[in-house]
Amino acid sequence: MEFSEEFIKSFIHPRNDLLLKMEQYAQTHHVPIMQLPAIEVLTQILRIQRPKTLLEIGTAIGYSAIRIAEALPDCQIVTIERDEERIRLAKEFIKESDAGSRITVIEGDALEVDVTEFPSAFDAVFIDAAKGQNMRFFEKYSPLVPSGGVIYIDNIFMHGLSDIPIEEVPRGKRSMIRKLKEFTEWIKNHPGYHTTFVPVGDGLLICLKR
């Protein structure tokens, strides 16, 4: 059964002026942010999990970090971004947010950041960066997640490219999609995690650490 777009959108809550401004900026400047149905699902699951600390890989302009912080008033968020212009914008938007005091932006490549600078553990990790690097992100940061913690990963479906034979993927994206497929198969069978796929937005993966 397929649900109409109007029915799905009817469950999307109104956003404040700052979030609307960020959504407009992202659309105008082609900055990838989570699709509205996906961020609604993610924040609702996080409300249920109630993490006190969350690490985000891939800040972009700070949209998801702000949405998560607003949904979790007792959560401290650390978010990592390497693009200088996006860092600048994220800091400006975060400063405007009522939840900005609970969001810390780390500047640098998430694969090169020294994890010893972080708290010893994060209740949740949200990976929303270079899709071909999901395996490396996961292997680097999953040790920071304790048993019972959750790792969330966006864009697993990758606009349908993850669901077609690799030879049908545009040549310029084959390497990335191949790595994404390999990671997806790997995590589905990982004995250390209960993993499920939520078909919302561009595909959300939820990995509960055993």
From TrEMBL:
Gene Ontology MF terms: methyltransferase activity
Pfam annotation, one family: Methyltransf_3
GO biological-process terms attached to the record: methylation
UniProt-annotated binding residues for S-adenosyl-L-methionine: 34, 64, 81, 109-110, 128
EC number: 2.1.1.-
Binding site for Mg(2+): 128, 154-155
Keyword tags: Magnesium, Metal-binding, Methyltransferase, S-adenosyl-L-methionine, Transferase, tRNA processing
Encoding gene per record: trmR
SUPFAM superfamilies per the UniProt record, alphabetical: S-adenosyl-L-methionine-dependent methyltransferases
Family affiliation: Belongs to the class I-like SAM-binding methyltransferase superfamily. Cation-dependent O-methyltransferase family.
Catalytic reaction(s) noted: 5-hydroxyuridine(34) in tRNA + S-adenosyl-L-methionine = 5-methoxyuridine(34) in tRNA + S-adenosyl-L-homocysteine + H(+)
Lineage: Bacteria, Bacillati, Bacillota, Bacilli, Bacillales
EC top class named in words: transferase
Name of this chain's protein: tRNA 5-hydroxyuridine methyltransferase
Oligomer and partners: Homodimer.
Keyword Protein biosynthesis (UniProt): no
Function: Catalyzes the methylation of 5-hydroxyuridine (ho5U) to form 5-methoxyuridine (mo5U) at position 34 in tRNAs.
Organism: Ureibacillus suwonensis
